[in-house]
Amino acid sequence: GAVVSQHPSWVICKSGTSVKIECRSLDFQATTMFWYRQFPKQSLMLMATSNEGSKATYEQGVEKDKFLINHASLTLSTLTVTSAHPEDSSFYICSARPNRLASSYEQYFGPGTRLTVT
Amino acid sequence: AQSVTQLGSHVSVSEGALVLLRCNYSSSVPPYLFWYVQYPNQGLQLLLKYTTGATLVKGINGFEAEFKKSETSFHLTKPSAHMSDAAEYFCAVSEDGNQFYFGTGTSLTVIP
């Protein structure tokens, strides 16, 4: 149990276009999901906390208008990279905290989406 | 501010040898500490965690870690490495269960 999927697993897009990445909790409900970004040889950096039915909370330095997050249901959060540029190329990883484990501080991670902007 | 330092971006051990992956953290409050493993093209999988209680924590696949407050460390060990242990390992710290701060990761190679 506690499986998180991401779609697509990789995507190549042209500069100036927008890309949507989906994060789904397959066998549990998650009011709270998280989006991370990972550069090669670097740590995962938390970008934002996604809350079902409310606005996401962004970390300092993350552009809200560029990285749009929607958490419309208890099993789906989406990250849309708007007007993508080459510097947005990265590995994006989501995680979800099962509602039934809200007190355990565990997060389950998706396999990641590799975005390349040309 | 919280931060995590993983000493050694690459560690190589022989099959059957002791595995020791180092993690030091900084935190202004008692932290929650985690070790995750990432296999190629897969998500992060929780190996073990420390929240409260016993400072020696046992996880999956024979791994364990000890929380040492005086040394601000949470090193990961396994008595005998197996080929299947080859992967990327991440240490993480959180003060509130929401914001996780990750180390840069340690790539473990197991030599047959």
Notes on the protein architecture:
The complex is a heterodimer of chains A (118) and B (112). With 118 residues, chain A is mostly beta strands. Chain A has strands at residues 4-7, 10-13, 19-25, 32-38, 44-51, 57-58, 67-73, 76-81, 90-97, 108-109, 113-117. In chain A, strands 2, 4, 5, 6, 9, 10 and 11 form a seven-stranded mixed beta sheet that branches. In chain A, a hairpin with a 2-residue loop joins strand 7 and strand 8 (76-81). With 112 residues, chain B is mostly beta strands. Chain B has strands spanning 3-5, 10-14, 19-21, 24-26, 32-38, 44-50, 56-58, 64-68, 73-78, 87-94, 100-102, 106-111. In chain B, the strands form three sheets. In chain B, strands 2, 5, 6, 10, 11 and 12 form a six-stranded mixed beta sheet that branches. A four-stranded antiparallel beta sheet of chain B has the order 3-9-8-7, with no helix packed on it. In chain B, strands 1-4 form a two-stranded antiparallel ribbon. Chain B is globular and about 40 Å long. Chain A binds chain B through residues 4, 9, 32, 34, 41-46, 49, 59, 93, 95, 97, 104-112, and chain B through 4, 9, 32, 36, 41-46, 49, 51, 90, 94, 97-105.
